[in-house]
Design goal:
The complex is a heterodimer.
Chain A lengths: L9 E9 L6 H4 L19 H4 L22 E4 L11 H9 L3 E4 L4 H9 L3 E4 L2 H9 L4 E5 L4 E3 L5 E3 L4 H9 L3 H6 L2 H14 L1
Parallel strand pairs in A: 1-2, 2-3, 3-4
Antiparallel strand pairs in A: 1-5, 5-6, 6-7
Chain B lengths: L5 H7 L2 E3 L7 E4 L2 E4 L5 H10 L9 E4 L20 H17 L2 E3 L9 H7 L8 E4 L13 E4 L2 H10 L1 E4 L3 E8 L8 H12 L7 E6 L1 H4 L3 H9 L8 E3 L4 H7 L9 H10 L12 E6 L6 E3 L7 E3 L10 H10 L14 E4 L1 H4 L2 H11 L9 E4 L4 H9 L2 H8 L2 E2 L20 E4 L14 E4 L2 H10 L16
Parallel strand pairs in B: 3-4, 3-6, 4-5, 6-7, 9-10, 9-12, 10-11, 15-16, 15-18, 16-17, 18-19
Antiparallel strand pairs in B: 1-2, 2-8, 13-14
Classes of the chains: A alpha/beta, B alpha/beta.
Chain lengths: 198, 471
C-alpha cells in the first residue's frame, strides 16, 4: 500500500532550516539516483551533493547536519521549494530521511501534489511568518492537520490552508487511487460519449 | 456562453466529474506517455492492487532517460552506465509486455526522447489532455493540447483509470509582439520570458503564449517555448493550433486519416481562445528587443543577454550562485572559457536545432580542449540529420555524434561533465550539479552553443553567421 493509507493528524517536532530559495528537486535527490525501481531507500541520498564532503563524511556546513537540526521532522525551506523536475523521488527521499512536513512561502505545484499524495505535509505560510520561522531554527512546532494550525513554542499559532480533499485523505488515510476507482461508471460514460462524437 | 480561453475549452471538455468544495475534479486524460524512470513503482502499484492498464491504446512508452547514447558493441551489448540503469530499462520492457502497452523501444525506429518522439508519430494532437511522469510534458502544449507533468503516484492513477484528480489552475497570457531578430531563436525567447516573469512566476498558472511572434514560430520552435514553461513554475504552456500545426501533423502515423482528418481539423479550429476571453494574469513582451540570451546562475530565471553585464547579486543566495558559476557581477558571460558543449534534449534536440548548429559548424572546428556532444532527440531526427549529412559536419568539426536520448540534460546515463567544468547546453536546467556534481551550466540556443564550441568561450552566434543562415 502507498504511504497515504497511514492516517496522519499531527506532526510534532523541531524545525530544521534551509534558507536557500528555489531548492530544486535535483538538489533534493540528484538524477543519478533515479535508476531505482523502488520507493524506499532514497533517504541516504537526500541532498546528497550538499550533505556530504568529497570524502563521503558529513559536510559540517550543511544546515541539516548541524546538532540542532538532527532528528527534526519539520523542514522550513526558502521560497519556491521543490521546483524543477516532477520526480516523486524527491518526497520519497525526504520522507525516508525523516522529514514529515515542509514549510515555505511558496512550494512548486508538482512537488506539492506529489508530497501530499505520500503523506508528506507541504505547507505554505505568509512571507512574514516564513521569515520568522527561517530566523528561529530548532524550535518545536505542533502542526495540526485537522484545524490547519501550527502551534508555536510561545503558544501563538500560524494558520495554513490545505485543500479539503488533501486534508481528508491525510487524516483518514484515504488513498486517492481508491477514490478515483469509485468513478468507474462516470469514466465509462465519458468515454462512450467521446467515442461517439469522434 | 461567455468567452472562453483555449485552456478553458480544454479543461471543460475533459471533465468526467466537476470539482466541488471538498473534492477535486476528475479530468480525463487522452494520452499517457511513459518512460523508464518514473513508471516502475506505478506498475508495481497496479500489480499490488490487481489492476489492469485501463486504456493501453491511450498509453505510449519510450526509453530515453537511463539509456546510453553510445552504440551497442558487436555482440549487441549496450554500454549502460550502471547495472541499475540497465535493470530499469529491462523493467519497463517487461512491464509493457505484461500490461500490453506500446513501447518505442530499442528495436523501434521511433524511439526517442518522449517529448520529441510523441509529436513525431502524431500521438500528440490539438485538443488533447496529455500527461507523463516528466515535467517537460509542457512541450506538447505547442499543439494546443493541455499537457503537464505528473508524479509517479499519478502515473499509477492514469494507468488504472485514465483520469487524474485535479483542481483548475489559473490562466496567464504571455503576449509576444513584434518579430525576433536574426540570430535570436525560440530558445532565447523563452529564456527571456522566464527571466522576465521569474522562476516561480508561473506557479499555479497555465500559460498561453500568443501574439505575432508566436504565430510566426514553426512547430519545432513552439515546442521549444512550451517545453520550458515549467522552468517558470507553470505546469503547462499552450499555443493555439493553426495552419502551421495542421500542416506539421498531417500524414503522421497516429493522426486521423481521410474524412476523419477533416473532421478533426474542423474541431481543432474551434479551440483558439475566443475574442474577449480574459486571463487571471497577462504580460506583454516585445520580441524585437530580445538578444541571444544565456543563463548566468543556477536556475533558469537567472538570464541575461549575451553581451549584457551579469547583474549584481540581490542576496547571499544569489551571490553563492555567482560564486558557484565563477561569474562576476558587472561583466558579461560572453567570453567565459568553455569546457563542454551539449546540443540536444527535449528543448533543442530536433532537426531544425541540429541544422542551425550545423550551419555554424560547417567548415569550422571545435576549439582545442572543448568536448562537444551532439545528441539527436529521436531516431527519426537522427535519420533525417544523417540523410542531410549533418553528422558529418559535426564529426568533421571534432564533435561526438551520439545516439538519441536525454543524455547530458539530466546526466543520469553517464553523459556528464566533471566538477568545475563549464557546459554550454541547449537543455533546460542549470541547477547546481544537474549535469554532474560541481558542473556549471550555461543554458543557450543551438546557435550560441555551436558558436561557443568553435570559439572555446561563450560566444555570440552572429559573429559566425552568413547572410543565408536562418535561425
Amino acid at each position: 500500500m502507498s504511504p497515504t493509507s497511514r492516517p496522519l493528524a499531527y506532526v510534532h517536532s523541531c524545525t530544521a532550516v534551509l534558507r536557500n530559495e528555489n531548492i530544486d528537486t535535483d538538489r533534493i535527490i540528484p538524477a543519478r539516483f533515479l535508476t531505482t525501481t523502488e520507493r524506499t531507500g532514497l533517504g541516504k541520498h537526500c541532498f546528497e551533493d550538499w550533505r556530504y564532503a568529497a570524502d563521503g563524511s558529513d559536510n559540517p556546513a550543511f544546515p541539516l547536519n548541524q546538532a540542532n537540526a538532527r532528528g527534526c521532522a519539520i523542514l522550513v525551506a526558502g521560497h519556491n521549494f521543490g521546483c524543477g523536475s516532477s520526480r516523486e523521488h524527491a518526497p520519497w527521499a525526504l520522507l525516508d530521511y525523516g522529514i514529515q512536513a515542509v514549510i515555505s512561502s511558496e512550494i512548486a505545484d508538482i512537488f506539492r501534489g506529489n508530497s501530499l499524495k505520500n503523506g508528506l505535509l507541504a505547507i505554505v505560510v505568509s512571507a512574514a511568518e516564513h521569515r520568522w520561522l527561517l530566523d528561529n531554527p530548532g524550535i518545536e512546532l505542533r502542526i495540526d492537520i485537522a484545524d490547519g494550525s501550527i502551534r508555536l513554542p510561545d503558544g501563538g499559532t500560524i494558520r495554513f490552508d490545505l485543500d479539503a480533499f488533501s486534508r481528508h485523505c491525510l487524516l483518514n488515510g484515504v488513498d486517492q487511487m481508491g477514490f478515483l476507482l469509485q468513478h468507474e461508471a462516470a469514466i465509462a460514460t465519458f468515454e462512450n460519449r467521446m467515442e461517439e462524437a469522434a | 456562453m461567455s468567452a472562453r480561453t483555449l485552456f478553458d475549452k480544454l479543461w471543460d471538455s475533459h471533465q468526467v466529474a466537476p470539482e466541488t468544495e471538498s473534492t477535486p475534479g476528475v479530468l480525463y486524460i487522452d494520452l499517457h506517455l511513459v518512460h523508464e524512470v518514473t513508471s516502475p513503482q506505478a506498475f508495481d502499484e497496479l500489480r499490488l492492487r490487481n489492476l489492469q492498464v485501463r486504456r493501453p491504446d491511450r498509453t505510449l512508452a519510450t526509453l530515453d532517460h537511463s539509456t546510453p547514447t553510445l552504440p551497442a558493441n558487436a555482440s549487441g551489448v549496450r554500454p549502460y552506465y550502471t547495472k541499475e540503469a540497465e535493470a530499469q530499462v529491462a523493467k519497463l520492457e517487461s512491464n509493457v509486455r505484461e500490461f500490453g502497452v506500446d513501447l518505442m523501444g530499442w528495436d523501434s525506429p521511433q524511439r526517442g526522447i518522449v517529448h520529441v518522439a510523441g509529436p513525431e508519430v502524431g500521438a500528440t494532437q490539438p485538443g488533447m489532455t496529455i500527461v507523463c511522469g516528466d515535467s517537460h510534458t509542457a512541450t506538447h502544449g505547442a499543439f494546443g493540447a493541455l499537457a503537464f507533468g505528473i508524479g509517479t503516484t499519478e502515473v499509477g492513477h492514469v494507468l488504472a483509470t485514465q483520469c487524474l484528480l485535479q483542481r483548475k489552475p489559473k490562466s496567464f497570457a504571455i503576449h509576444v509582439d513584434g518579430a525576433l531578430q536574426r540570430g535570436v531563436t525560440a530558445k532565447d525567447l523563452i529564456l527571456h520570458i522566464i527571466g522576465t516573469i521569474g522562476i516561480g512566476g508561473g506557479t499555479g498558472y497555465v500559460l498561453e503564449y500568443k501574439g505575432d511572434a508566436i504565430r510566426a514560430l514553426s512547430m519545432e520552435e513552439r515546442m521549444t517555448v512550451c517545453n520550458m514553461s515549467i522552468e517558470a513554475g507553470a505546469r503547462a504552456g499552450l499555443i493555439a493550433p493553426d495552419e502551421t500545426t495542421f500542416a506539421w501533423l498531417e500524414g503522421r502515423e497516429r493522426v486521423p486519416k481521410g474524412d476523419a482528418w477533416d473532421r478533426a481539423v474542423a474541431a481543432w479550429r474551434t479551440l483558439p481562445s475566443d475574442t474577449g476571453a480574459t486571463y487571471d494574469r497577462e504580460v506583454r513582451i516585445d520580441a524585437s528587443t530580445i538578444q541571444p540570451s544565456v543563463t548566468y546562475g543556477t536556475h533558469p530565471g537567472m538570464v541575461v543577454a549575451i553581451h549584457a553585464n551579469v547583474p549584481p547579486a540581490a542576496d547571499a543566495v544569489e551571490q553563492r550562485a555567482l560564486d558557484y558559476m565563477q561569474v562576476v557581477a558587472g561583466k558579461p558571460i560572453a567570453g567565459a572559457a568553455v569546457d563542454v558543449v551539449f546540443i540536444g534534449s527535449c528543448t533543442n534536440g530536433r532537426l531544425s536545432d541540429l541544422r542551425a548548429a550545423a550551419e555554424i559548424m560547417r567548415g569550422r572546428t571545435v576549439a582545442a580542449g572543448v568536448r562537444m556532444l551532439v545528441v539527436p532527440g529521436s531516431e527519426q531526427v537522427r535519420r533525417d540529420a544523417e540523410r542531410e549529412g549533418l553528422h558529418e559536419i559535426f564529426r568533421a568539426a571534432g564533435a561526438e555524434w551520439r545516439e538519441p536520448g536525454c543524455s547530458m540534460c539530466i546526466a543520469m546515463n553517464g553523459d556528464l561533465a566533471q566538477p568545475g567544468q563549464l557546459v554550454v547546453a541547449t537543455s533546460n536546467r542549470n541547477f547546481e550539479g544537474r549535469q554532474g556534481k560541481g558542473a556549471r551550466t550555461v543554458l543557450a540556443s543551438p546557435l550560441v552553443a555551436a558558436a561557443s564550441a568553435i570559439a572555446g568561450r561563450v560566444a555570440d552566434p552572429r559573429e559566425y553567421m552568413t547572410q543565408e543562415v536562418a535561425a
